[in-house]
Amino acid sequence: MAAELSPIDKAKFVAARRAVDFVSDGMKLGLGTGSTAAWMVRCLGERIREEGLRVTGVPTSRRTAELARQVGVPIQTLDEAKWLDLTIDGADEIDTQLNLIKGGGAALLQEKIVATASDQMIVIADAAKEVAHLGAFPLPIEVIPFGWRTTMALVEETLVSLDVLNRECTLRMTGDRPLVTDESNYIIDLHLKRIGNPRQLALVLNQIPGVVENGLFIDICDIVVIGQGDGRVTVR
Ligand code: 5RP
Q1: Which listed residue, of 4, 9, 138, 183, carries a Cα 20 to 30 Å from 171's Cα?
Q2: Ligand 1 centre from 81 Cα, in Å?
Q3: Is residue 102 marked as binding?
Q4: Interface pTM (ipTM) of the complex?
Q5: What is the pTM of this model?
Q6: Does 103 carry a binding-site annotation?
Q7: CB neighbours (10 Å) of residue 78?
Q8: What digits encode the pLDDT tens for the residues 41-67?
Q9: Which residues does substrate bind (predicted)?
Q10: pLDDT tens by residue, 145-189
Q11: Rg (CA), the chain
């Protein structure tokens, strides 16, 4: 599966493959979204085909659901599964406390619901995702389309009240239209450069009417599996 991969894809692949070792027979799994999570779904499909592993997955996006079907991973909805043993997902940034920024793939809402409904969350990533402080990657927030400009203004006001210096907010576009998430919402990206207090920011953002969820995952991730371009993997 890993033949002729670029170093970045190899890093993602080896992290995904190692994380799939944590999966055991009978588990109910949360299936993340993004290019690294896609490797995990493929590796899971391989174990199902080759070892007869029996698992069910709850996908966190339509894209992941489609891939799971293609590679033979049985899926169900979160309401059918009710509670999950393990979620494996990617991330855009991981700090030293295992707090995350997610949502680069616009799936943060379902990803957070699914990870929170799991006994354990494993994050898989290439080494470039490890950071000392969150915030260089723009923080996505999912907002309802109704009144999104007003919601964005309220977010900016909130950032002023928290003395956040860099606080440019942009509506995520696809071509000349706002990107629409699987839950029919919009994404606003907060360009903050560095987040001083991620826990506080995560709580405050979710108090703003119109904000559905933010991409800060605080105290949700339990284990991080980092892959390197040369095939080395570290688990912490
Ligand atoms: C999607 C996500 C992804 O997990 C995150 O963007 C990482 O993606 P990739 O593995 O492609 O780098 O949060 O909403």
Answers
A1: 9
A2: 23
A3: yes
A4: 0.99
A5: 0.97
A6: yes
A7: 18
A8: 999 999 999 999 999 999 999 999 999
A9: 33-36, 89-92, 102-105, 129
A10: 999 999 999 999 999 999 998 999 999 999 999 999 999 999 999
A11: 18
Question: Tokens 């169900």 label which residue?
Answer: 76
- Annotated catalytic residue 50: no
Report the Cα 132 to chain-centroid distance in Å: 19
Tokens at 191, concatenated: 């360009």
- For 202, the token pair is 């995560």
* Token representation of residue 88: 């494996």
